[in-house]
Specification:
Length: 405
Amino acid sequence: MNIVRIDKRDHTFDETAKEAAEHLLEQFWILRDKEPDKYQLVRQREQVLRTYFLEKMGFRLILHRHFAKLEKVPAEPEPWMGIQSFKDTRDYVLLCCLMACLENKAVEEQFLLSNLCEELQGLYPGEEGLDWTHYEHRKSLVRVLQFATEHDVVKVVEGDVSDFSYTETHEVLYEVPITARYFLRSFPRDLFQLQTVEQILAAETMGQEETTGASRRHRVYRMLFLSPAMMMKGAEDADFLYLRNYRHRIREDIEKHTDFQFELYKNTAMLTLTERKSRYTLFPDNRAICDIALQFASVVRRQQEEEKFSLLPDGSIYLTPLEFLHWLSLCRDRYGAGWSKQYREMDIAEVGRELLELLVEWKMAAEDEETGVIYLYPLLVRTTGSYPGDFKPEAAEGEVFYEEE
């Protein structure tokens, strides 16, 4: 008879489980041969991690002998969730065609770039097709294959695909790794039956009512963990009402199982960290545009107090593009002496475009595409920044001190 010893720690969400959960949330997957220590953390706490993520977020944990992967599905797709290195819709289409090509190849099978190009031409949809004599088409494939290599979807045996940008006859030898079989998540329905993004996101909840406790809990947790903030969508927002009603239980649960702090305001909820961790993408970071965003937030707060702008029901204020640039000009007049040389010399409209892009990404603002009206959300003024009292205007690139409201 074989005696099996069960380690009680495997059933406890301890510090080891917390660290493993952080890695799973932040990384696409953890490869055993590249990060054995992280993989072992997940393996040691597989049971509690699997249970927690499935119960709270509806995420499936895959623990393979070669990798660990948490299949993270957002409650709502957001622009920053795209592949940042991709520049064109063609890139995404080519990635899908590449995955279709790999499905027909065996694990560890090797193939040449030239053969792949022929297969992609046969699979690529639409009337335009692919022409490898066109620089932009070759550049798209280079971006896709570089992304696929970085994420271990294909393995380079010999060659460098970047040279394919300059000549369509350049050759590279690839190999199909085992991870290529698990890059795409499986769906409970045939994708040809799904016509919209909303249908794809809802496919995994087939048979569940939108108002059930599990479905609503999954949506709320996904918004909190995968988005900068969860914002109330009108007075009858059922998900936000759920968040308010169960706020004490949610706070206790999140702060027990992670290092995040749960914050709930009238119209906004978010997770924050008391100490910086390099593995996370945080606001503010070390970029100069984040310093400007903090300073702009202080100007917004002062302008609202002085001019008594009426707030919209969700607590936001709206500005025309000219008003937005005017407030940014006030910000530059007040703090511009400490901006980096790049932003001191940049046209105010260019600074405005870059700042607005950052604010939209972090759900601190939104722009109406039709009217150009800019909405500044309450989250923007939660954290403001200014120079310390001993700051000297002649000292460029001064350090910004920020405080949370």
